[in-house]
Structure formats: C-alpha cells, structure tokens
Amino acid sequence: MQQAEDFRIESRVLAAVLEPLSEAEFFTPTQFKGWTIDDVLGHLHIFNHAAALALESDAAFHTFFEDMTKVMQAGGSIIDAQRPWIGDLKGRALFEAWRETAETVADGFAGADPRARLAWAGPSMSARSSITARQMETWAHGHEVFDLLGVKRAEADRIKNIVVLGVNTFGWAYTVRGLDVPSAMPFVELTAPSGAVWTFGEESDDRVVGSALGFAQTVTQTRHWTDTDLECLREGARGWMDIAQCFAGGVSPPPAAGSRFVQG
C-alpha cells in the first residue's frame, strides 16, 4: 500500500527534526494541551504498537487496549493511560523505540490487504484507513513539535491522504456532536503542495477554497481555520470548518484562533 510508505516517510520527516535534540529538550511543553515532546512520542508509539497488534489479530488488539480503556473510564487522560505500558521508557530511548516501531509498522502494512478489516478503539476499519490514520496522527502531532522548535515543515502531496480523511469525516463532525448532518457537503477546492488542484464534492457556491495544508491543519485541529489561508464562502462551509474533526473519540473543540503557531 502506498499509504504505508507515506506513513513511513511522515515518520522519518518527524524523526529528522527530533534527532538533534538533547535529552532535556524532549521534556519541553508544547502548545498542545501542555504535552511535552516526550508525551507526543509516547502517544504515537503506543498507538503505532496497537495498530501492529490489530494487523496481527482482533484479539491481540483488544487484549492490549483493555488496560488503557480502564484507565480512561476511571477518569484518566490518554497520557495517563499510556504511562503503565511505556514505563521507564523516555527521552532519547523512547525516541529510538518509536522510530524503530514506526518502520516495523510500515513494513507490516505495506504487504497487507488494503480492504482487510482491523479492530480499533471504535468501529473496525480497513487496513488502508488504519495506516492512513497513523500517518494523520504522526503529521498532526508532529505539528506541535515543529511549532515548538520554530521549524516550518516542507509539505508534500502525500498530505492528500489526510485531506481525503477530512473529506470522508464530514458527517462525523456533526454526528459526534449530536447534530443533524447537512444534506450536502460544501464543495472543496484545494491547492496541493505540488501546485495541483484537488476538488471534492459537487460544484456549489457553498465551498471551502485554499491550500491542502490549511484544510489538513483544520480537520486535524492543529490550527483554527481562520489562522490558515482557507476561504469559506458560505455559512455551510464556515459551519463545517468550525467543528471539523477527522479523528475518532469524543467531541474535540478546535484550538482557539491565534493559539497555535510556529514559534521562534
């Protein structure tokens, strides 16, 4: 699957910016909920491991995820839930473990049937969707790392996987909030990093126009849409971008306008 290679590249891009860090720098808080870089790596590492288990069998995934679920049901955060498994792994040692596991996961998914159904925390999903979600999380949580380090990431057209995920979860953004899903998705017209133009949906005056980067930042909630170059030309488009959420879980509000930016 090409998506497995896209995930591999995304992981390597993040690894390259992390490689020069000192041990102490891994514990610097980011703009995302005060998570440190170490927290981010722990989150990516444990869910990459969970994806590898899901590829192995439904039972392997559910056995592993049960302990995390108990912590969260008791009121613990997702960071609290990952700590028992990660244990004393931290800093550069965690970085190396995350990097090695990411390569292993990419290898496993590269040869998988894209249509195979795999268990996950919510509904099962296809292997293609599962590895796309890993790329999306690596790219999205990479944002807080790049922002903290004052580095502007060079984007590539593999971002289309994240854009498609954002388009496909149009209805989910409403459903998770208990809202009626609009009868039609606004038309989406985006400029890719290569300059290509990607369009989604039926032609309409109700549209989202701008860069693929701005759209991906919005649907992953790494930026408020007004902090991107997106233009929302009608009320429907604005309403969607106000609540866009391409990831599973409960309701997640987007960051406040102006609260996420490249530092330095």
In short:
The chain is an alpha+beta fold. The chain has helices at 2-18, 37-56, 58-73, 78-86, 91-110, 127-149, 160-168, 170-175, 212-219, 235-243, and strands spanning 117-118, 125-126, 187-191, 197-200, 207-211, 231-232.
Describe this structure in words.
This protein has helices at 2-18, 37-56, 58-73, 78-86, 91-110, 127-149, 160-168, 170-175, 212-219, 235-243; strands at residues 117-118, 125-126, 187-191, 197-200, 207-211, 231-232. A hairpin with a 5-residue loop joins strand 3 and strand 4 (197-200). It has 264 residues and is of the alpha+beta class. Helices cover 52% and strands 8% of the residues.
Write the layout of secondary structure elements.
Elements: H1 2-18, H2 37-56, H3 58-73, H4 78-86, H5 91-110, E1 117-118, E2 125-126, H6 127-149, H7 160-168, H8 170-175, E3 187-191, E4 197-200, E5 207-211, H9 212-219, E6 231-232, H10 235-243
Parallel strand pairs: 3-5
Antiparallel strand pairs: 1-2, 3-4, 5-6
Helix pairs in contact: 1-5, 1-6, 2-3, 2-4, 2-5, 2-6, 3-4, 7-9
